[in-house]
Specification:
This protein has 276 residues and is α/β, with parallel strands linked by helices. Helix content is 48%, strand content 15%. It has an eight-stranded parallel beta barrel, surrounded by nine helices. Helix 4 links the parallel strand 3 and strand 4. The structure holds zinc ion. Zinc ion binds next to loops.
């Protein structure tokens, strides 16, 4: 078992009729908790970090730790850059041994998104790495519904985008959003189904924290292969850390460390089980 490409994990997941969890990490405790859950359930996962997080968790520190944890794990693990915003960061991640990169140029006009994504695909291929890109805008609408049609991924555009860029995975916008939802979102399964029918790349669901277990399973049955989980892990870590710090007695760093590992572990474990 070892560090593998995200593409191979997604193929494996499709063959086994399940989704693969992509878990964001921001420190050593989160890396340990996520890997522990994956090993215990004997299920491959993706460890990832988004470019916006790098101001708190520098890539040159996190990257080698994530790559090493993947290599040493008892299950297959892919290491992925989430929402890469600059070519420099993408190159740095690839140099550090990340087996997958996402480049997010979804806020650019369609043609420019294609051109920028093509550039990333070209760079990643030299490393044998997987590429994920996004079309449509994840998040934004208050109730999470797809009423603001323009934000949802257009299935025809998705087809063209995948053909012209040669990407390995496509992040779709179907009413999902990043962060905490005010209430469970209403996902546009009809749009998802249409995108799935028109494209033949694995689809990615961002903003997984707060989506119901039933909706996860339905989304996976309609073409979602990779599911991103970040906020739920951060919340679970904070909850366990708070519980520890509010408990009686004298506190110490080592027990706090264990509480953070446990918080991440519990959330990752829950989601791996849901995606089976
Ligand atoms: Zn995202």
């Amino acid at each position: 078992m070892s560090l593998v490409t995200m593409k191979s994990l997604m193929e494996q997941a499709v063959n086994n009729n399940r989704g693969v969890g992509a878990f964001s990490v921001g420190n050593m405790e989160m890396v340990k908790g996520a890997v522990q859950a994956a090993e215990e359930l004997d299920t491959p996962i993706i460890l990832q970090i988004a470019e916006v997080r790098l101001k708190h968790s520098p890539l040159e520190l996190m990257g080698p730790m994530m790559v090493h944890a993947a290599k040493a794990a008892k299950v297959d693990i892919a290491v992925h850059l989430d929402h890469g915003l600059t070519m420099d960061t993408v190159e740095e991640a690839l140099e550090l041994g990340f087996t997958s990169v996402m480049f997010d140029s979804s806020t650019y006009p369609f043609e420019e998104n294609i051109v920028r994504t093509q550039e990333v695909v070209k760079a990643a291929r030299q490393y044998g790495a997987t590429v994920e890109a996004e079309l449509g805008l994840v998040g934004g609408s208050e109730d999470g519904s797809c009423d603001h049609g323009i934000r949802c991924t257009n299935p025809e555009d998705a087809k063209l985008f995948c053909e012209r860029t040669g990407i390995d995975a496509l992040a779709v916008a179907i009413g999902n959003a990043h962060g905490n939802y005010p209430s469970a979102p209403k996902l546009a399964f009809d749009v998802l189904q249409e995108i799935h029918e028109k494209t033949n790349v694995p689809l990615v669901l961002h903003g997984g924290s707060g989506i119901t277990d039933g909706d996860f399973r339905k989304a996976i049955s309609l073409g979602i292969v990779k599911v991103n989980i970040a906020t739920a892990s951060f919340n679970s870590l904070v909850k366990r850390a708070e519980e520890y710090l509010r408990s009686d007695g004298k506190h110490n760093y080592f027990a706090l460390n264990e509480a953070m590992v446990r918080g991440t572990y519990e959330n990752v474990k829950h989601h791996i089980e849901v995606f089976q």
